């Protein structure tokens, strides 16, 4: 089932999401719906707060990038209760966008490697260092679970430049090709 994507201005996007327990109801179905919603919107990642749920669940699909990055062939994963424990010192800049911020693309500096803990879809625990593009996507998505959006990492000047677009979103004017849920 395709769910509407919550857009900037929705309070749930600013909440601290909570870890879930293994008996969380209909988790498989929720994850399937998140994948379907992300696919429809042409995203590479989607966090549960973006569909209105303040829980620590994220889906990532890097298979769509496999033409350019063959290492991601077939890469479609869910991350449950993910947490970033530490990050490398080296920062790299890359342009980011977000399904909850339609029409905004900005360069964001982030550490190039991170140490993460999470459960996979089978509730199996993982503890690993991740680098490169996946580390970038994970940081963006896991930020959502802490109520953080990529625009929070921008300079005051860049924030000023996108203020008009943000104000429009809060007023319910989000231009995109997928179903959204704005505040108004
Ligand atoms: Ni996002």
UniProtKB/TrEMBL annotation:
Pfam families: Pep_deformylase. SUPFAM superfamilies: Peptide deformylase (SSF56420). Its cofactor is Fe(2+). Keywords: Hydrolase, Iron, Metal-binding, Protein biosynthesis. The active site is at residue 141. Removes the formyl group from the N-terminal Met of newly synthesized proteins. Requires at least a dipeptide for an efficient rate of reaction. N-terminal L-methionine is a prerequisite for activity but the enzyme has broad specificity at other positions. This is Peptide deformylase. The gene is def.
